[in-house]
Write a structure and sequence with these properties.
Distance between the termini of chain B: 34 Å
Number of strands of chain B: 19
Structural class of chain B: alpha+beta
Largest interface: A-B, 39 and 54 residues
Radius of gyration of chain A: 14 Å
Order of helices and strands of chain A: EEHEHEEEEE
Strand content of chain A: 35-45%
Number of strands of chain A: 8
CATH class of chain B: Alpha Beta
Number of helices of chain A: 2
Largest sheet of chain A: 5 strands, antiparallel
Distance between the termini of chain A: 24 Å
Number of helices of chain B: 15
Oligomer: heterodimer
Helix content of chain B: 25-40%
Radius of gyration of chain B: 21 Å
CATH class of chain A: Alpha Beta
Shape of chain B: globular
CATH architecture of chain B: Alpha-Beta Complex
Shape of chain A: globular
Number of domains of chain B: 1
CATH architecture of chain A: 3-Layer(bab) Sandwich
Chain lengths: 139, 485
C-alpha cells in the first residue's frame, strides 16, 4: 500500500498514483494521498474522533471517487481530517471508520486546500500486484 | 497520451487559429488570443483541451482560449465557449469547480505615505479578521435558512445584515445577486460544506492585497480618475470564490451528467471533465439553477470579506470606512456560465456563454454594465501573481468576437511541485519584504507555490489582451501587502 505524487501532469494541481494489494488498501492509500495533499505530516493528525460512513457507486471506480470526495466534505463541513481509515468493501459499496481530528492551523502544517477530485485522466485498474489508481485533485 | 502539436494559422499578431481538421469531432475551429511569445509559453494540454471544447454540441463560431491560458480539466483555464441555448449544452467543466471565483477592488482616500508606517499593523489586522487557509473558520456560522438566503439573494442578503453599503450592489457584476438561482437544486452536502464559509478567503491562489497606484502605472488618467483612482493612492484587491459549497455543486452535477449524458442524451465526449447535458434539459436547467446559487454565494462571500476590510481599516486608521471613502470600484466573476445575447452572423442570438478563468468584458453601452460605468465599458479586474501586480482594464466594442471576454490572471507556467522545489516560503517572504511587500501567509509551502516566477509575466498577458482588442488598460496596481491562505 502506498502513494506517490507525480509532477508535470496538471500544471496547477496535484496528481498522484495510489496502489494497494487489495481494493481496501487502494482506498486507504488514496485517502492518505488526498489528506497528505492538504496536511504536510499525517503523523500530526491525532486519532481523536471517528466518523462512520457508508457509500456506494455505480462501479468501483465511481466508489473510490465518491470516497475521496467524502473526505473533502468532512474537511469543509466539520473541519475534520483523518489519519486512520478502516474500510470494508462489498461489491460496489463500502463501510468505513474514519479516525482523525479537527483541523488546527497551529498544529498541522498546511499545504493547500483541495477543492475537488477531478475526472481528468482518472483511472482505477487491476494490476498483477493488486490495484492502482491515477488521480488529479483540483487545488 | 498521443499528442500532435497543432498547426496554427495566424489570424493577426495576437490571434492564432487551430482548424477543425486538427481533431475528429471538432465542430468549430479553436482560437487562442496571445502574442507569439505568450502562445509559446502555453503547455501542450491547452491545445488539446481547447480543441476538445470545440467538439461540444451547439458551440458557436470558435472555442477561445485567453492569453493567460493553462491546462485545466475539460476546458483549459482561460477557455471560453458560447453554446446556442436551444441546441447546445451546459458543461460544469466549462465553469470550473470554483464557481464564481472572482475579484473585488476597493478604493480608499489614503496615500502610500499614510499607509506605509502602518502597513504591518494593517496586514496583521486584516489577517486576523479574515479567515484564510484550510480550516480558517468564518466568524459567521449560518443556519440552513440563512444560507438559503445567501444562495438565492447573494450580496443583497449581506447588505440587509449590515455587511456593506447599499451602493456596493450597484458596483458588483449583476448587482451581486443573480436570478434563476434555486436552492432546491442544491444537495444537502453542498449546503453543509458552505454553512461556515461565508466571509472566508480559502487557499491556493486566493489572496487579499493592499496595492499602490503609482502615477507611472496609470494608463488612462481620465478614466482612472472617474473611477476613483489617483496617483499614490492605496487600494485593496482580493480574489476568492464560492469555497467548498461551489466545489460540491460542481462535483454533484458532474456525477449526474456522467450518468445521463450518453444513456439519455446520446452525447459522446473526449474527456469526462467535459460531462454535459443539453442546456434546455431538466438536468441542464437544474445545474444552471444550482450553479447560480454558487454564483450568489461567491458574491456574498466577497461582500462579507469587504465588510471586514472596511472594519479593519477603520480600526487601524481611527476613522470610519465612510471617512476613508472606501467605495467599492467593482466586483467581477471569472468562473461561470451566463445567458447573454450576442451577434452571430448579423443576428442577435441567445447563447449560454461559458467562461472558465476568463472575465466578461462588455463594451460601452451593453446593458450588463451598471449604469455608473455603462458609457465607459465594463471595469475588469485581473489579478497577477503576488510579486508582480494586477490590472484594472475596461471593456471595449472590439471584444464582440470573443463574446466580450478577456483574461483573468497571469496563468501558471510552473507546476506547484516545481515551485515548491524552486522556492522556499520563508525566504520568499523575506525577499518580498525587502522589495516593500509585507506578506502574512497561513502556509509557507502554499506561499512557495504562488511565487511570481511560477506564473507568466502579467504585463505580457495584458499586452496580448489589449493588443488583440479584447480590453483596454486603465491602471496597473502593485502590491505592498498581501494575505494568503
Amino acid at each position: 500500500m502506498s502513494y506517490r505524487f507525480i509532477d508535470g501532469v496538471a500544471i496547477a494541481d496535484v496528481t498522484f498514483e495510489a496502489t494497494g494489494s487489495t481494493l481496501e488498501e487502494l482506498f486507504e492509500s488514496a485517502a492518505k494521498a488526498v489528506t497528505n495533499s492538504m496536511v504536510d505530516d499525517l503523523g500530526t493528525i491525532e486519532e481523536k474522533t471517528t466518523r462512520k460512513i457508508s457509500l456506494s457507486g455505480k462501479d468501483q471506480e465511481r466508489l473510490l471517487h465518491n470516497f475521496m470526495q467524502e473526505l473533502l466534505f468532512y474537511k469543509d463541513a466539520e473541519g475534520l481530517v483523518f489519519s486512520k481509515y478502516t474500510i470494508k468493501i462489498t461489491g460496489n459499496s463500502l463501510e468505513a471508520d474514519l479516525v482523525g481530528e479537527e483541523l488546527d492551523q497551529e498544529k498541522h502544517e498546511w499545504i493547500t486546500d483541495v477543492k475537488a477530485v477531478s475526472w481528468h485522466m482518472y483511472k482505477v485498474e487491476k494490476t498483477e500486484e493488486g490495484w492502482k489508481a491515477f488521480v488529479i485533485l483540483d487545488v | 497520451m498521443d499528442f500532435k502539436k497543432p498547426q496554427f494559422t495566424k489570424i493577426s499578431d495576437y490571434i492564432w487559429e487551430i482548424s477543425k481538421d486538427y481533431k475528429q469531432g471538432m465542430r468549430v475551429p479553436a482560437r487562442i488570443i496571445a502574442s507569439k511569445r505568450v502562445l509559446d509559453q502555453m503547455d501542450d494540454h491547452v491545445y488539446d483541451q481547447i480543441t476538445n471544447v470545440a467538439t461540444l454540441p451547439g458551440i458557436v463560431n470558435y472555442a477561445y482560449c485567453m492569453p493567460d491560458g493553462h491546462s485545466g480539466y475539460g476546458f483549459p483555464i482561460g477557455g471560453v465557449a458560447a453554446m446556442d441555448t436551444e441546441e447546445g449544452v451546459i458543461s460544469p467543466g466549462g465553469i470550473g469547480f470554483d464557481i464564481n471565483c472572482g475579484m473585488r477592488l476597493i478604493r480608499t482616500n489614503l496615500t502610500i505615505d499614510e499607509v506605509r508606517p502602518k502597513l504591518h499593523e494593517l496586514v496583521d489586522t486584516l489577517f486576523r479578521r479574515i479567515p484564510a487557509g484550510v480550516g480558517g473558520k468564518s466568524r459567521m456560522r449560518l443556519s440552513s435558512q440563512e444560507f438559503k438566503q445567501v444562495m438565492e439573494r447573494g450580496s443583497r442578503w449581506c447588505i440587509e445584515k449590515g455587511l456593506g453599503w447599499e451602493e456596493d450592489l450597484e458596483r458588483t457584476e449583476m448587482k451581486g445577486s443573480v436570478e434563476s438561482a434555486d436552492s432546491s437544486k442544491v444537495s444537502e452536502k453542498a449546503i453543509k460544506r458552505g454553512l461556515g464559509q461565508v466571509g472566508t478567503l480559502g487557499s491556493g491562489n486566493h489572496y487579499l492585497e493592499i496595492q499602490h497606484v503609482k502615477e507611472e502605472n496609470i494608463e488612462d488618467s481620465e478614466l482612472a480618475k472617474k473611477w476613483g483612482l489617483f496617483p499614490d493612492q492605496v487600494v485593496v484587491m482580493f480574489h476568492c470564490g464560492s469555497r467548498g459549497f461551489g466545489h460540491q455543486v460542481a462535483s454533484d452535477y458532474l456525477n449526474l451528467f456522467l450518468d445521463v449524458m450518453q444513456s439519455k442524451y446520446g452525447i459522446k465526449i473526449l474527456d469526462r471533465e467535459l460531462a454535459c447535458a443539453p442546456f434546455r434539459s431538466k438536468e441542464g436547467q437544474d445545474y444552471f439553477s444550482a450553479m447560480n446559487c454558487a454564483v450568489n454565494m461567491g458574491f456574498a462571500n466577497r461582500q462579507a470579506i469587504l465588510h471586514e476590510v472596511r472594519e479593519g481599516f477603520a480600526g487601524v486608521f481611527g476613522k470610519s470606512a465612510e471617512d476613508l471613502e472606501m467605495h467599492q470600484i467593482y466586483d467581477i466573476c471569472h468562473n461561470r456560465a451566463s445567458v447573454e445575447k450576442h451577434k452571430v452572423g448579423g443576428e442577435m442570438k441567445e447563447l449560454i456563454v461559458h467562461r472558465k478563468g476568463a472575465t466578461a468584458a462588455f463594451g460601452p453601452g451593453r446593458e450588463e454594465i451598471p449604469e455608473l460605468y455603462r458609457n465607459d465599458g465594463q471595469p475588469i479586474l485581473i489579478g497577477g501573481s503576488m510579486e508582480t501586480g494586477s490590472w484594472l482594464l475596461a471593456g471595449v466594442d472590439s471584444a464582440a468576437d470573443t463574446w466580450f471576454t478577456t483574461a483573468h490572471g497571469s496563468g501558471r507556467v510552473m507546476s506547484r511541485a516545481q515551485a515548491k522545489r524552486t522556492y522556499r516560503g520563508e525566504e520568499l517572504q523575506k525577499n518580498m519584504e525587502k522589495k516593500g511587500i509585507y506578506i502574512k501567509a497561513v502556509s509557507f509551502k502554499g506561499l512557495a507555490e504562488e511565487a511570481g516566477g511560477a506564473y507568466k509575466k502579467i504585463d505580457e498577458v495584458i499586452d496580448s489582451a489589449t493588443s488583440a482588442g479584447v480590453s483596454r488598460k486603465v491602471a496597473k496596481l502593485v502590491p505592498i501587502g498581501n494575505i494568503k491562505g
